[in-house]
Every structure is written in structure tokens, then in C-alpha cells.
Structure to design on (233 residues):
């Protein structure tokens, strides 16, 4: 997988790309990341990338031309812009990108990017969620991590990483490991029982409970899901 990242802050990516599974995937040649310093295409002695918004208003807008020039050699990649106005990033989106060709992640700063650049040179606009960050870099890192763990041959890529294993649309159950007692708190007795039917039942109950309390959106989809009918007779 080849991922290009267009950013005003290439150094932002140094440690996250070196360590952990992402670093290993790069060492092993599964992942190639090209960091493109947008400042290179800035205008004037200050290498300016932003200008005031037409129509007035607070803040500055990223100019289309430097971004278009940085993107020119990347026409044949899938060009993704991080933005608070994008479609929410989902596991399905990451699956699609992990199975596809080279990706380009475009990180803006300031208050966003000239719409004409988006209309003419961006294939897909995604958001990490309904909160506002300072720029697209954190989103780009989220995408890199989310894609890398799906790459065939990436360490720790069991079959369970695929979307299907988002199984029935429920959150995960709580998990426990040793010691059996921590600050006086014990592990739920059922998990030590060795009764695998009871364990499975307990896990499903916890997943349903969590989903209902924390994610009413997922819970509504879960209770509405098509269920297989009992065979007649
Ligand atoms: C890329 C710049 C910062 C963007 C204006 C006015 C209400 C804000 C600041 N999921 C997610 N969150 N944040 C991003 C993201 C922010 C970015 C950029 C991605 C580039 N910023 C910024 C827009 C505004 N806007 C209406 C929302 C202020 C992605």
C-alpha cells in the first residue's frame, strides 16, 4: 500500500510512522508513506498558503493553487481530504481503501480549503467525527493506522479485522486479564467458571447493555436488524 500525505507539518508524522505496527509494516515493505511538504508550493518569500475568504468573515482559507500543484503528480491515486464537513469515516471506508490502490491524504489547516480545489481534485471528503480539530493531520494518522491493520500480512491481522467481524453491530464486551484481583476488584465470576455457554451468554448481555446505554444509534439499528425466521412446521 502506498499512502502520500500532503501537509504543512511533515514532522508531525515522524514518530507515529516509526513506531508500533505502522513502523513494522514500513520496514517490511507492506506500507510506503510519502510525506509531501505543502510549504514547498507556497507563494512569495513567506511561502504563503492561505488568503482571506471572499465574501468576508473570520479566519483564512487555503488557496487552491499550491494544493493543486502538490496534487498534480498524484492524479492516479484516490485523493482524500480530511475536513469537519466530510462524511463520517467508518470501518467500511477503511476496508474499501485497504483493498484499493494508492491513497493520498490531504491535510488542511486554517479554516479549510477553497471549494474549487475540492470539486476538481478531491475524490472523497471524510471527517473523524463531530468536533473541530486544528487541521487534518490527526485524521490522516487515524486513516493510516486503520488501513495498516487491514493489510494482508500486517502483524496482528487476523480474519477478525474485517468489517464482517463488526459482527452484529454491537460494541465489545468488557475484557479482563491477570491478576484475578486488582485494587480489591475481582474479575466477573462467570469468566473463571470454564462454562463456555454461560460465558458467551454473559458476553452478549454485556455487549447489548453497553450498546443500548452508550450508542443509541447502533442499538436502534441492532433491534431493527432483519432476523432469520424460524423454519415452518
Ligand atoms: C481539516 C482546518 C480546522 C476547520 C470552521 C466553522 C463549525 C468549524 C477550523 N473531524 C474533524 N474535525 N476537524 C477536522 C479538520 C479540521 C480542520 C482541517 C480537518 C483543516 N481545520 C478548522 C474549519 C473551521 N468551521 C463551522 C465547524 C475551523 C476534521
Amino acid at each position: 500500500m502506498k499512502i502520500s500525505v500532503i501537509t504543512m507539518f511533515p514532522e508531525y508524522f515522524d514518530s507515529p510512522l516509526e513506531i508500533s505496527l505502522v513502523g513494522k509494516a514500513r520496514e517490511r515493505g507492506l506500507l510506503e508513506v510519502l510525506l509531501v511538504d505543502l510549504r514547498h508550493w507556497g507563494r512569495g518569500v513567506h511561502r504563503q498558503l492561505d488568503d482571506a475568504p471572499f465574501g468576508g468573515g473570520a479566519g483564512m482559507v487555503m488557496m487552491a493553487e499550491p494544493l493543486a500543484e502538490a496534487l498534480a503528480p498524484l492524479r492516479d491515486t484516490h485523493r482524500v481530504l480530511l475536513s469537519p464537513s466530510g462524511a463520517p469515516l467508518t470501518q467500511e471506508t477503511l476496508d474499501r481503501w485497504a483493498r484499493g490502490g494508492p491513497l493520498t491524504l490531504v491535510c488542511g489547516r486554517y479554516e479549510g480549503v477553497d471549494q474549487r480545489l475540492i470539486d476538481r481534485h478531491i475524490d472523497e471528503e471524510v471527517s473523524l467525527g463531530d468536533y473541530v480539530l486544528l487541521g487534518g493531520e490527526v485524521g490522516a494518522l487515524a486513516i493510516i493506522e486503520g488501513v495498516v491493520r487491514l493489510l494482508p500480512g500486517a502483524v496482528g491481522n487476523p480474519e477478525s479485522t474485517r468489517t464482517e467481524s463488526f459482527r452484529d453491530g454491537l460494541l465489545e464486551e468488557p475484557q479482563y486479564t491477570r491478576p484475578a484481583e486488582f485494587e480489591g476488584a475481582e474479575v466477573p465470576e462467570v469468566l473463571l467458571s470454564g462454562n463456555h455457554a454461560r460465558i458467551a451468554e454473559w458476553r452478549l448481555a454485556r455487549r447489548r447493555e453497553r450498546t443500548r446505554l452508550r450508542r443509541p444509534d447502533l442499538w436502534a439499528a441492532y433491534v431493527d436488524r432483519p432476523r432469520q425466521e424460524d423454519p415452518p412446521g
